[in-house]
């Protein structure tokens, strides 16, 4: 007899992260290649000595440090076990069966999965032809069942950003009681042009329904420790606090995040090198004939359509693990020249072969 597990989840795929193997160059998960700084390692070691105790469930010190850095009150900050959990908790506290969660597609895979797990309905609005979020189409997709909207900026996996005016116009259009989550997981890699530049914290002050999501997983290099945060109106933070799984941000993660904030000048300086590489890698790929949109993240998107899986498999055979999205394209993390060149050599050979 079948066990009583929700039947509506039967066809839901599980999240499959990029797989790697010993010796491979892993460019599949948008991580940084460098390990933690000595000061961060030291904080990790010190925290490890006290893991017989539960972590601070209120994440008081880290919340205070983030509030201070960002010029907001502590009642506007919620730390979570990765920003993915904050995405999930936002869905949980806003949406149930029959409710709709709107986001662009293709985008971060957690949005549809977590929406379905909550029993709510994902509303996937296709990206524009230049692979950016189509905000007017998303506004048109709002119904009286819409409870939450995700705007992934830059978008994972395409790396594209929306224009600043379009974003503000969108926020003006969305009914003010519907929460809009601006997912800025790649915030530290943004180098926005004049028409794109926006200040999420300023927008947050203007729009009470705006939630900004950021993470320590990318530029801060703590993907393995799972720390992210939400900036939101205190009413949203109270709700997120209710959904917070007790003690889910462990004590090592909290201390490593604090040490990373203390060393952030050094960590953020590294993003400049990645940004320079992103320009170089995108340019070279375009010269080779690939369709690559402008990226504002630490990865680039190759629009490969039906060739996606074949390309990704051949790439793995060449020792480089990238992230394929069947039928659409491949996302490749940009790190530093030594690794990126290994990928580019493969991309060159592939382009030569298919000419
Ligand atoms: N949002 C986006 C757009 C992402 O790409 C990711 C990581 N892949 C996350 C959120 C979650 O990041 P984390 O849980 O590591 O903070």
Automatic annotation (TrEMBL):
It is an enzyme of class 2 (transferase). It holds the Pfam family Aminotran_1_2. It catalyses: an aromatic L-alpha-amino acid + 2-oxoglutarate = an aromatic oxo-acid + L-glutamate. Its EC number is 2.6.1.57. Residues 25-339 form the Aminotransferase class I/classII large domain. InterPro entries: Aminotrans_II_pyridoxalP_BS, Aminotransferase_I/II_large, ArAT, HisP_aminotrans, HistidinolP_aminotransfase, PyrdxlP-dep_Trfase, PyrdxlP-dep_Trfase_major, PyrdxlP-dep_Trfase_small. One of its GO terms (biological process) is L-histidine biosynthetic process. GO terms for molecular function: aromatic-amino-acid transaminase activity; histidinol-phosphate transaminase activity; pyridoxal phosphate binding. Its cofactor is pyridoxal 5'-phosphate. PANTHER family: HISTIDINOL-PHOSPHATE AMINOTRANSFERASE, HISTIDINOL-PHOSPHATE AMINOTRANSFERASE 2. Aminotransferase that catalyzes the conversion of aromatic amino acids and 2-oxoglutarate into corresponding aromatic oxo acids and L-glutamate. Belongs to the class-II pyridoxal-phosphate-dependent aminotransferase family. This is Aromatic amino acid aminotransferase. The gene is pat.
